[in-house]
Design goal:
The chain has about 375 residues and is an alpha/beta fold. It has 2 domains: about 190 residues, no CATH class; about 130 residues. It is built from 9 helices and 21 strands. A hairpin with a 2-residue loop joins strand 12 and strand 13. The radius of gyration is 22 Å and the shape is globular.
Length: about 375
């Protein structure tokens, strides 16, 4: 079953980002910069730079597509650490001509990371294996570790903001890394005798990212944002019923900061409630009590930026009052709003026979809403549950 959703275009302003995540891991792997291997490392952790309390908090993406493999959840796991935050993103991820998975990094990812002060390292896959029993799919892709390590060393001594680093890194290195990725997939195709997506398509797209034969961030933005927004609009017309509310719209934001930059982001749902605009991310499970932990963290991370907006306006209208909300849908009885009193939380957990771990998750989420003023969490039952 699908429902139609409209789209609401909004403007926002962010001066600074302050957020206290609470659903944090209790342990982190610590790696030495001298022998760090991005391929062997876990999805997130700390890199010891060789001096006391001098670390990089890193996360890595499997694909440049934000909706796959929970890259935002990985960054969330590092966000509370008092270290420079770095995320490693493959510039292209092609999984073979027999799949539709042939993704490229886009400007909206650049926007998210700039606004949240996260340093990007562009990476590329250089090796892979043909998937057993196929001629047009690959697996076990391996990033070029040397180029990642070189950039980690550079980031470690970079004194300016992530915006400054990311802008310079994209301008100086985007084309080189992109061409390395394209060339590597050509080599993989030959070595593994496997059909890959056409290199020419990637090369033609790269030319669109250029002005006067040089990579240009404005061109990159102008090419990738309409495609991203078109995808968001397609999703807004085919939202699964689990993710819908009766009067919701997809939110497409143009966000500016004090440096004068403009960034473009999307929110799952926006709607009016008690004369306030609710900016909402929804995560759901129709069979389990809760969405997965990665789903929850993905939703929370997306809301960090929205929770730090100083102003929100619809189109060219005056500013509106707003809150941000994470909606968690599960196989539950009743509804629980956070922040809330512990007595109410305990009653809800007992009624739903939640495990100690699930109870603890709700307590940590409750703490997160207390520590972040504009954040609310709505835990409720699947709407069409019998």
């Amino acid at each position: 079953m699908v429902v139609q959703m409209s789209t609401l275009y909004l403007k926002g302003f962010v001066r600074d980002v302050k957020y206290n995540p609470c659903l944090n891991p209790t342990k982190y792997e610590i790696y030495s910069i001298s022998d760090f291997d991005v391929n062997a490392a876990k999805a997130y952790g700390l890199i010891n730079l060789g001096t006391s309390e001098n670390n990089l908090a890193f996360s890595k993406w499997v694909s440049p597509k934000r909706t796959r493999t929970y890259p935002f959840a990985r960054i969330y796991n590092t966000y509370h650490l008092n270290s420079k935050k770095v995320t490693i993103i493959p510039i292209i991820k092609d999984e073979g001509a027999g799949t539709q998975n042939n993704d490229r990094i886009n400007f909206i990812t650049f926007s998210w990371m700039n606004l949240l002060n996260i340093y990007i390292i562009l990476a590329y896959y250089e090796k892979a294996e043909r998937k057993t029993g196929t001629t047009d799919r690959i697996t076990n892709q391996i990033l070029n570790a040397e180029s990642v390590n070189n950039k980690l060393v550079e980031v470690s001594s970079h004194q300016a903001s992530a915006l400054h680093w990311n802008t310079n890194h994209f301008m100086a290195d985007f084309e080189k890394v992109y061409l390395n990725a394209v060339e590597s997939y050509e080599k993989i195709a030959l070595a593994e005798r496997v059909a890959m997506h056409a290199s020419q398509d990637h090369l033609q797209k790269l030319e669109q990212f250029k002005t006067d034969h040089q990579f240009c961030l404005d061109a990159f933005k102008n090419v990738t944002i309409p495609a991203s927004q078109a995808a968001a609009l397609r999703e807004s017309l085919t939202i699964h019923v689990l993710e819908s509310l009766d009067e919701n719209a997809k939110g497409v934001f143009t966000i500016s900061n004090y440096l004068g930059g403009e960034y473009h982001l999307t929110a799952d749902e926006v709607y009016w409630e008690n004369d306030q605009l609710v900016i909402q991310e929804s995560k759901n499970s129709s069979k389990k009590k809760f969405p997965s932990e990665n789903d929850i963290k993905d939703g929370l991370f997306k809301l960090i930026l929205f929770a730090n907006l100083e102003q929100v306006a619809i189109g060219n209208s005056t500013d509106v009052e707003f809150i941000v909300r994470l909606k968690l849908i599960g196989n539950l009885k009743g509804t629980l709003f956070l922040p809330n009193e512990m007595e109410q939380i305990s009653r809800f957990c007992i009624e739903n026979r939640l495990t100690r771990s699930q109870h603890n998750t709700i307590k940590l989420l409750n703490q997160e809403t207390f520590e972040n003023e504009k954040l609310e969490i709505w835990i409720t039952r699947y709407k069409y549950q019998q």
